[in-house]
Structure formats: structure tokens, C-alpha cells
Design goal:
The complex is a heterotrimer of chains A (321), B (505) and C (288). With 321 residues, chain A is mainly alpha-helical. Chain A is built from 13 helices and no strands. Chain A is globular. Chain C has one domain: MetI-like (MetI-like fold). In chain C, helix 1 packs across helix 2. Classes of the chains: A mainly alpha (321), B alpha+beta (505), C mainly alpha (288). Chains B and C meet through helix 5, helix 8, helix 10 and strand 15 of B and loops of C. Chain A: It comes from Roseospira goensis. Chain A: Pfam families: BPD_transp_1, BPD_transp_1_N.
Chain lengths: 321, 505, 288
């Protein structure tokens, strides 16, 4: 187990190094001059040169890469080229939007998807099952940003119950802040819930056919009792896999949903930073995102071991199937 | 590690219930009118930082100009130069020495006094070798800056500069404090009627009235600038009352809805934004005036204004703002005439379908929408157009600096910027010694009538040469709560001056 | 579930096949005929409601919405097809190679996969767009790149199972090379799984293309795309909700059809008949 852990850690570290090199190289060749963008069309060559100097853009490439990575390793963030504040100061308030949004939508997806999946499996072949599967089939096919637009149309434009977009800030109180996050969270959650329901259903069906379930039934447990006592733990493995992946994609999905709902989150920050050629912000965010995805996948692998003792012996190849 | 499911399910149910309650309590209560002395102003773009002396972004001035920062002079709502921190001034007969008498009762928001030393510092900072002032050219004529005493400033010029007082009224020329200049990007400290409270990045900037302001206290006790980039969201925010005013409403298509609503006043004014289809004279056959004229005749300005701007905007025939006294209407030099366009192209030896041009379009919707329409209009006279959407970063780097484009659409928003046609190696590459000479004469002319005449000649030359496709003057689409007064109708400078804004009872 | 050996596509599968077929037919027809030229503008007639001349109305430039939806189908399908083709073209050989050689090569391929997964597809698309400018090619590259690791993973997993089967062992004993065995024995045996996966990836690619165009990173005017139609429609939400609803419906119908077809095909083609055997990742391709 320890060896597997170490191997995964090294792989994660290598992934991050590769990611940092890749993003740095891409940003290096990106057309567009951040200094010109700040100073605009009437900028004079001497002012441009002065600004570029103060932005640290005149240092040699290798040196800039090393300073950057060195700073990250020490936990120090560089200063944004456009905003003039350190990236972590810039990031913190955005995380307070994107983080709750991701958690809220993941929560909604789990709260809707898993019970529906279990119910559908328990009533396999009956109308409930057909209904759940039909709705989830539709849910998988709906683009989340379109769902977002429809929700705005219904709840904000027609009914005027909820704001169409924007974020009042947490200091406005949890009520208005959550109200602003509710529609975007729903738009993200419903398609994910549909996927979760389908995966849960098939996982539970699989488990229901296993020997130990028959044994449990033979011991006199009812189908439902057997399912709760023995089945779900095993059924959770594929569900957790999908959940782990969903979390990473939720992070990415927030980029598009934040655009629909005009939320000042991490996704919008990345978008803005790329268009403003704020290289400092872009590279930090990309590496942080890659790290988050890596860590979540890592945690998913760990949870397999917790859920299924047999995998501890096999050694961490659960994702390789 | 794994919870028994039934309990987890109960928890999930509780969580959902809590969420539903939270959502319900979040519903807006009965509409209550906000306190009548604060204002929420909507803006499309968020400023990158808040120091107007270190960036070209219009959004910076739109927040801080005249509100937080003031200059020696200021530009009024009608575009005229007015005294600000300089009470009065004298100009020597040769036009080379300006003596400014500063107000004596001015304090910065950090409590320090504003003196001639701060003025010297501000101007020298803009002129320094390591200056990052985006409009350093405004100060090009300044040779020396000195404080005669605590409240007298002497500015010496190397050549007469007819527009010096005007230039000193720009946001890029505001007065900053010796002690606070370095941190103005994130904590702006000026002398204006409002001081900075905080900036929630990605969302809003908050200002409050500054009790020690030298002038009459503003009617508003606080003001918030909210940044809403999406036009649909802007409309929703206005309708919901989340925003009290938009000085520049981003969605002309939504104005009809707001106009029907008695709660709002829709005020259409003028801007300094000449929207042009810039043609790269370095690239044949665009160096041929016949081809450029053909492009002019292919364009239907009224369709552009109707289709891209939903009717808001004024057609222009040269590079000059129609509301200016020296404006001449030259749209009849390039009327919509596809037949004539085809004939001119044939005359230049171009067969239909032979000419393929690229069209670089920066992000604003005026450019993207006009671009799609122009591509279709040029297609109708046999010119194939490839649309290349670009971000500003690419536009500045490739089109503006690298001259790598055939055609591009952009609004030139600086006031009286017809002199850009005299610049060497400017992005569209126009070169006409006669025009350059005219601009040189203009620079040394101070008589208003003579200047107006020179401006008229300049406009005519540009129209005759069909330098660019001249499309329309951007309109300023102001929308605000009908009970508000004192907001500017026009925008002679990019600013949202809140000094005189108040709520009517 | 093994007892459910279905030899036909099943009802859902047939519905899916019919829907997909209909969308493809519409896309093909749009190449030669649409009610109006989808790019033809008529500003005087902008934002018109449904009429005889324009059954689904017109947009903000007075373009015919029905013609635009038809033309949008071909862009969606073309981009997705090429992107999935690119992903399969690179991913399948990589997966076969990894399964055939194991060892460090296998490890390297899988770690490369991790790296590709660590970059959300949308982020890749944003960077590619900044680098090369927006356009259909950019969308194809971004979606295609994301599909490579998906196909590599699925191919490797399925191929590993085949490598353990007796007839492969026999072929090895007969002295056949690994490359030959991969092509002659492994590939035909995993083709079903791959076709099913391709159908699902195709559906995801349609969603991804729409998302990228919605953000302005996909195909550009005068090319029509459902995603960009949605983007443009958003500012008219208060005036003409129709414009924001129709392109979305087109996307949903297409994706639904492909997913149903994929399910039908899986029941018929996938030898394992295992609903999880197919990698149904919620995919950056779809969400991000």
C-alpha cells in the first residue's frame, strides 16, 4: 500500500511538473503583449519598455520559469500583471464563489442522482425504473449552459423569483448569496445527477446478482435490508469513480456556467486572465487546477481501498480498467 | 469511513430541506426603495486597477475620474475646460509659460494637504523616463515643472501647445499624492468628493462621500460601481432594480423594453467614438483609392446602425464627431451604391470574386455585429471577406502594432483624435504630406475660428482620400432610474462624474 | 445481465438510430438545400416571429432560423466526427500498444493519459484559442485531444482482457508477433466496445462543440453553429426567448438520439454486455 501511495505521489508530482512546463511554454508563445494591453493605443515605446521592465518580462525565459516554480514551492504567489495584487489575494474571493458552487452542485447531484438510481434498480423493469431512466437519458443530453439559460428564463425572467445572474457577496448574508448560487448549481447538478442515477442503477443491479447477496437473502434478510447491509458499499465503487471525475469536471463546468450567470468565480478569472494576457495569473491557475484534479483522483483511488478490502492487495490499479 | 446509507440519506434530506429554506428566505421581499442618497451604477468592464495615470483602460476613468481623482483642470459635461485644483492660471504671451494658482483648501483622502509639491511630483512622475503613463504624449510639450511657492505651479513648454489646458483635464493627468502614488492601483487616494472604500474584485467598487472635500458636498453619501459584462444580465439587473443607472448601456436591443417602463429614463447622448472600418494601406490593392472608395460605396451605414446598434448611432462620412461645431457632413461622398462599387473595382482591374480580404474584429458587439453585416455587404459587390475574431491583446499586438491585417473595425473614442491620420506609421498606414502639414498648422493655431476651419479641411481630405470606411458615431445609451438627476447625457470624456447626481424626492 | 442477449437494437436503440439518421439527413440536405440561405441577412425583417416565409422566425440580422438550425447540424456533426476520429485514430493504437507491450511503455502511456486528464478540455480549448485564434479547427483539436486518453484507456482495458484469452495464447505460441496479434485478433474482438464508445464520445463531442461555440471558441461566422446561436440569443432572452430555446432543442435531440443508439449498440455489440464496461465518463468533453 505504501509503495502504491509513493508511486502515485511521484506520478502526481511529474504530472504537475509537465503541466507547469507546458503552460509556461504555451504562454511564452502566445501572441499579445501584456504591457501594450495595459497602456493602449497611445502608448509610447519608452513607456512600454518601462512597464515591461517593471512587470519582469525582460528577464531570461529559464530564469522566469525557475523563479515562478520556486515561488510556488515556497507557497509564494507572484503579482498579477493586470490587477497588481498577488495571485492568492485575487484567488481567495473567487474560490469563495466557485468552491461553494461546486460543492452545492455536487451535493445536489448526489442527493438527486444516487437515491433515484437505487430506486430504479430496486424497481427494475417497472414504470418507476422506466421513468427514472427516461428522465436521466434526457438529462444526460442537455447541455448545462442551455439548462442555465432555461432556468434564467423561467425563474428570473418569467417568475422573477431568483436573480438572473451576478453575485452579491457573502457579506450580503447567506440568503442572497445562496439564492444567487442556486440556479447555477442546479444547471450544473441536473445533468450530473442524471449520470449518477444511471451509474448507481447499474452498479446496484450488478451487486444484486452477486453471491453474497444471495447468501444474505438466504439468511432471511429482505431484498432492501440485504441491499443496505451488504450491497451498497460495493455498489459505491463505480459511483465514487464517477463522482471523482465529476468533481474535476464540475470545476471546469463552472467556467462555462459562471459565464452564463455572470458569477465572479475562478472560471471567469481564468477567462479574463487569458484575454488580458495576465500570464502570471493564468499559469498559477492552470497548475492549481491540474493539482486539484490530480489530488481528487488520488483521493478516489484511496477511497477504493477503503471501500473494497480486496483492492488493497491488488494494488491501486483500479483506475486502469 | 463509509456511513451506513440510511443515516446518510436522512442527512441528505435534511440538507436539502435546509437548502430549500435558504432559497425561500433568499427570495426578494416586497420591493423597497433604496435609501435616497446612494447610487449603484452598472458598468460593462471591470477596471484592471484604479490608477488612471498607469493604464489606458477606460473603465479606470469611469470609476475614479472626478469622483476620486481630480486634475489641475477638468472637462465638463459639454466638453469644455473648467478649473479644478487650479483655481486660475495665466499664460505668457509666447504661449510657453503657464502659471497655475492652486486651491489652498484641498486635502487628499489620507489627510495630507495638496500643495504645489504634489503637483510637481504628479507631472514629473508622468514625464519621467520610467513613467508608465499611457498618454505620455499629452505632456510631450512640457519642458519644466516647478513650484514657485506652496500654491503656485509654473509649467514651461518647449513649443506652444494649444491643447495643454485640455490635456491636463484628462484622467491620465490627475493629481496624485507624494505619499500615496505607489498604492493607487489598489487603494486610490485622491482629492475628489468621494473616497475609495473597497473593491470586491470581479464584482464591484464602493465609494463614499469624503467629508473634507474642498467643494460643495455631493448629494450622494455613497456610490457603488457594479461590473456586469453580459448584456442580458445588465438588462435583468436594471429591471430588477439591482442597478440604478447605466451610463453606457451595453444592449441597444434591450432599450425598447426599458423605454416602455415608466420607472426608467432612457437618455441617448453622444460619445467621441468614431467607428471606422480601418483599411491597411500597406496592402495592395487597398493602397488604391478606387478600391477604398468601392468599399465605401459597398457599405450601407443605415443597415449597420439598424442591424448592429438597433438604430442608435449617427452615420459619419469622415473621422469627426457630428456634435462638434466644426463637423461637416460628408456622408454624401460615399453613399451606399453597390453598382458604383462594382464599377470602381472593375476600373481598378479587379474582377468579381478576385479580391479576398481579412476582417479582424475585436470583442465589442459594435465591432462583431457590424463586421458580420459588412462582410455580407462586401460579398454583395464581389469582395470575399474572411472574418477573424480577435481579443484585444491580439488586436493590439497583431493588427495595431504588427500591421498584420487587411481590414478591422474599431471605435476611436478619444476626443478630437483626427490627428492620428498624421502619425507616422500608424496602423492603417495613411501617408499624406498635405494632411500632415495641416495638422502641424493646427497645433500652433490658437484662434478658435481658424482651428475650426482647419478641422473642416482635414475632414474633407480624409473623405476625399477614402482613407477608411467611415461608419457611425457611437451613441451614449444612458439608462437610469427616472428619479435620478445630474448624470451626464453625453460623454466628452470617459467618466461617470457623480458630483452633481441626486435623487429627486 | 448476461442472459439478455439481444440480437436487435431494441426499441430505444431503434428510436436512437432513427433520430440520428434524421439529423444526419438534415445535415446532408442542408448542403444542397435550405429554405433560405442561412447567411442571408435581411435587417429590415429582424427578430420576426414564425411566419409562412420563415416557419421558425428570424434572428437579429433577419436570418432564417430554420435554415440556420439545418446548417448548424452539419457543423456540429462535422466537427464532432473529425474530433472523435482524431481521438480514436491516436488513442486506439496507443491503447493497443500499451496492452501489447505492458511494462514501461504501458506505464508511460497511462501517465500521459493522466496528464491529458489533468487539463480540463475547456482550459485546453481556451489556451489553443488564444494561441491559434478561435475556429472550427480549434474546437476539433481541443475535443480531439481530450478523446485520445479516453480511447487509449478503453482500448487498453478491453485489449488486456483479450490478451488473456486462449486463442491469443495459441497465436503467441505459434510464433505470431505482438503487432500482428493486436491487429488480427485483438482489434476485431474489441471493435464492438470501441464502436459503442465512439457513439458515446460522438454525443459528448456534440455537447462539447456547442459549449465551445457558446463561449465563442468554436466555429466563427459566417459558419453557423448551434452553440453560437445560443450565445447570440442570450442577449435577446427578454425579447425573443424562441431564439434561445430552438438551438438547445436541436442539441438535445441530437445527443439523445446518439445516446439511445449507443445503448442499443452496446446491447448488441459489446461482448461483455456490461453497462460499466463502456467508459461513460461525464467527460470534460461534455462538461468542460
Amino acid at each position: 500500500m505504501a509503495w502504491v501511495l509513493a508511486k502515485r505521489m511521484v506520478a502526481l508530482a511529474l504530472t504537475l511538473v509537465a503541466a507547469s512546463l507546458l503552460v509556461f511554454a504555451v504562454l511564452e508563445v502566445l501572441p499579445g503583449d501584456p504591457a501594450l494591453l495595459v497602456l493602449g493605443v497611445n502608448a509610447r515605446p519608452d513607456t512600454l519598455a518601462a512597464l515591461r521592465e517593471s512587470m519582469g518580462l525582460t528577464e531570461p525565459v529559464a530564469w522566469r520559469y525557475l523563479t515562478w516554480v520556486g515561488g510556488l514551492l515556497r507557497g509564494e504567489f507572484a503579482t498579477s500583471l493586470t490587477y497588481g495584487v498577488p495571485v492568492d489575494t485575487l484567488l481567495a474571493p473567487r474560490l469563495l464563489v466557485s468552491g461553494p458552487l461546486a460543492v452545492l452542485s455536487l451535493g445536489l447531484a448526489v442527493a438527486l442522482g444516487i437515491p433515484l438510481g437505487v430506486v430504479a434498480a430496486a424497481r427494475r423493469g417497472r414504470p418507476t425504473d422506466a421513468a427514472v431512466m427516461g428522465v436521466s437519458q434526457l438529462g444526460v443530453a442537455v447541455p448545462n449552459f442551455w439548462l442555465g439559460i432555461l432556468l434564467v428564463l423561467l425563474f428570473a425572467v418569467t417568475l422573477r423569483w431568483l436573480p438572473a445572474g451576478g453575485f452579491p457577496g457573502w457579506e450580503a448574508g447567506p440568503g442572497p448569496a445562496l439564492a444567487a448560487l442556486l440556479l447555477p448549481a442546479l444547471a450544473l447538478a441536473l445533468p450530473q445527477a442524471a449520470i449518477l442515477a444511471r451509474v448507481t442503477r447499474s452498479a446496484v443491479l450488478e451487486v444484486l446478482g452477486e453471491d453474497y447477496m444471495r447468501t444474505a437473502r438466504a439468511k432471511g434478510l429482505s431484498k432492501t435490508e440485504a441491499l443496505w447491509a451488504h450491497g451498497l458499499r460495493n455498489a459505491l465503487i463505480p459511483v465514487v469513480t464517477i463522482l471523482g471525475l465529476q468533481f474535476s469536471f464540475l470545476l471546469a463546468g463552472t467556467i462555462i456556467i459562471e459565464n452564463v450567470f455572470n458569477l465572479p468565480g475562478v472560471g471567469r478569472l481564468i477567462f479574463q486572465a487569458v484575454s488580458q494576457r495576465d500570464l502570471v495569473v493564468v499559469r498559477d491557475l492552470v497548475v492549481l487546477l491540474a493539482a486539484t484534479v490530480g489530488v481528487v483522483n488520488f483521493l478516489v483511488d484511496l477511497s477504493y481501498a477503503a471501500l473494497d478490502p480486496r483492492l488493497r492487495l491488488r494494488g491501486g490499479s483500479a483506475t486502469d480498467g | 469511513m463509509v456511513l451506513p446509507l440510511p443515516r446518510a440519506r436522512r442527512r441528505a434530506a435534511t440538507a436539502l430541506a435546509a437548502l430549500a429554506v435558504a432559497a425561500l428566505t433568499a427570495l426578494p421581499g416586497p420591493a423597497t426603495a433604496g435609501p435616497p442618497d446612494t447610487l449603484v451604477m452598472g458598468m460593462v468592464l471591470e477596471p484592471p486597477h484604479l490608477d488612471p495615470t498607469a493604464g489606458a483602460a477606460a473603465a479606470i476613468d469611469e470609476v475614479v475620474y472626478a469622483n476620486v481623482f481630480e486634475g489641475l483642470t477638468r472637462i465638463g459635461p459639454d466638453g469644455s475646460v473648467q478649473p479644478a485644483l487650479a483655481e486660475r492660471w495665466e499664460i505668457s504671451d509666447d504661449g510657453l509659460t503657464y502659471t497655475f494658482h492652486l486651491r489652498r483648501d484641498v486635502t487628499f483622502h489620507d489627510g495630507t494637504a495638496f500643495t504645489a509639491d504634489d503637483a510637481v511630483f504628479s507631472l514629473q512622475r508622468a514625464l519621467a523616463d520610467d513613467s508608465v503613463n499611457a498618454q505620455k504624449g499629452l505632456f510631450a510639450a512640457i519642458d519644466s515643472v516647478a513650484a514657485l511657492d506652496g500654491y503656485t505651479l509654473v509649467v514651461g513648454l518647449s513649443r506652444p501647445e494649444g491643447r495643454l489646458l485640455y490635456n491636463l483635464g484628462w484622467g491620465d493627468a490627475v493629481m496624485v499624492g507624494l505619499e500615496s502614488a505607489d498604492t493607487n492601483k489598489t487603494r486610490p487616494i485622491g482629492t475628489g468628493p468621494f473616497r475609495f472604500v473597497r473593491w470586491v474584485q470581479g464584482d464591484r467598487v464602493e465609494l463614499e462621500a469624503f467629508p473634507d472635500f474642498w467643494g460643495p458636498a455631493p448629494a450622494l453619501s455613497a456610490a457603488t460601481f457594479r461590473f456586469i459584462p453580459d448584456p442580458a444580465a445588465a438588462l435583468a439587473a436594471m429591471l430588477a432594480g439591482d442597478v440604478d443607472a447605466y451610463a453606457n448601456f451595453p444592449a441597444p436591443e434591450g432599450l425598447a423594453i426599458l423605454e416602455e417602463d415608466a420607472r426608467f429614463a432612457v437618455v441617448v447622448g453622444t460619445t467621441e467614438g468614431e467607428t471606422i472600418l480601418a483599411l491597411n494601406h500597406r496592402r495592395p490593392p487597398l493602397d488604391d483609392p478606387r478600391v477604398r472608395r468601392a468599399i465605401g460605396h459597398a457599405i450601407d451605414r443605415n443597415t449597420l446602425i439598424d442591424g448592429a446598434m438597433f438604430g442608435y448611432g449617427t452615420p459619419i462620412g469622415s473621422h469627426f464627431a457630428p456634435h462638434h461645431p466644426a463637423y461637416v457632413d460628408l456622408t454624401d461622398r460615399s453613399p451606399h451604391d453597390p453598382e458604383r462599387a462594382r464599377a470602381l473595382l472593375a476600373e481598378a482591374g479587379i474582377a468579381p470574386g478576385d479580391l479576398r480580404l481579412t476582417l479582424h474584429l475585436p470583442p465589442p458587439s459594435y465591432a462583431r455585429r457590424s463586421g458580420e453585416l459588412i462582410a455580407a455587404q462586401l460579398g454583395a459587390v464581389g469582395v470575399a471577406v474572411e472574418i477573424i475574431p480577435v481579443e484585444w491583446a491580439q488586436w493590439l499586438d497583431q493588427a495595431f502594432r504588427g500591421h498584420d491585417f487587411d481590414m478591422t473595425i474599431v471605435a476611436h473614442t478619444e476626443p478630437l483624435d483626427i490627428d492620428i491620420y498624421a502619425r507616422d506609421d500608424y496602423y492603417f498606414g495613411y501617408d499624406n504630406p498635405a494632411f500632415d502639414a495641416l495638422m502641424a498648422t493646427l497645433q500652433s493655431t490658437r484662434d478658435t475660428a481658424a482651428r475650426a476651419d482647419l478641422y473642416r479641411q482635414a475632414q474633407t481630405i480624409l473623405a476625399e482620400d477614402a482613407v477608411n470606411g467611415f461608419l457611425f458615431q457611437l451613441a451614449k445609451l444612458g439608462v437610469w432610474d427616472a428619479r435620478l438627476s445630474g448624470l451626464w447625457r453625453d460623454s466628452p470624456v470617459q467618466a461617470n462624474d457623480l458630483t452633481g447626481v441626486s435623487w429627486q424626492p | 445481465m448476461a442472459e439478455r442477449r439481444v440480437r436487435t437494437l431494441g426499441t430505444a436503440g431503434r428510436v436512437g438510430a432513427a433520430t440520428t439518421g434524421a439529423v444526419v439527413v438534415v445535415a446532408l440536405v442542408s448542403l444542397v438545400w435550405t429554405p433560405h440561405d442561412p447567411a442571408a441577412m435581411d435587417v429590415a425583417n429582424k427578430l420576426a416571429g414564425p411566419s409562412l416565409a420563415h416557419p421558425l422566425g428570424t434572428d437579429h440580422f433577419g436570418r432564417d432560423t430554420l435554415s440556420q438550425l439545418m446548417a448548424g447540424a452539419r457543423v456540429s456533426i462535422a466537427v464532432s466526427l473529425v474530433a472523435v476520429g482524431l481521438g480514436a485514430g491516436l488513442g486506439v493504437p496507443l491503447g493497443l500498444l500499451a496492452a501489447a507491450r505492458r511494462g514501461w511503455l504501458d506505464e508511460a502511456v497511462m501517465r500521459l493519459n493522466d496528464l491529458a486528464f489533468a487539463f480540463p478540455a475547456l482550459l485546453t480549448a481556451v489556451l489553443i484559442t488564444a494561441l491559434l485564434g478561435p475556429g472550427a479547427i480549434n474546437a476539433i483539436l481541443a475535443i480531439g485531444l481530450f478523446n485520445v486518453p479516453v480511447f487509449a484507456r478503453v482500448t487498453r482495458g478491453a485489449a488486456l482482457a483479450v490478451w488473456k484469452r486462449p486463442f491469443v495464447l495459441a497465436a503467441r505460441l505459434a510464433g505470431r508477433g505482438r503487432a500482428r496479434i493486436s491487429l488480427d485478433h485483438v482489434l476485431p474482438n474489441i471493435a464492438g466496445t470501441l464502436i459503442v464508445q465512439a457513439t458515446i464520445q460522438f454525443a459528448l463531442a456534440i455537447l462539447a462543440e456547442a459549449g465551445l461555440s457558446y463561449l465563442g471558441l468554436g466555429s466563427q461566422p459566417p459558419e453557423v453553429s448551434w452553440g453560437r446561436m445560443l450565445n447570440e440569443a442570450q442577449t435577446f432572452l427578454f425579447l425573443e426567448p424562441r431564439l434561445a430555446i430552438l438551438p438547445g432543442l436541436a442539441i438535445v435531440v441530437t445527443v439523445l438520439g446518439l445516446n439511445l443508439l449507443g445503448d442499443g449498440l452496446r446491447d448488441r455489440l459489446d461482448p461483455r454486455l456490461d453497462p460499466q464496461g463502456v467508459d461513460r465518463r461525464p467527460a470534460g468533453a461534455r462538461r468542460g
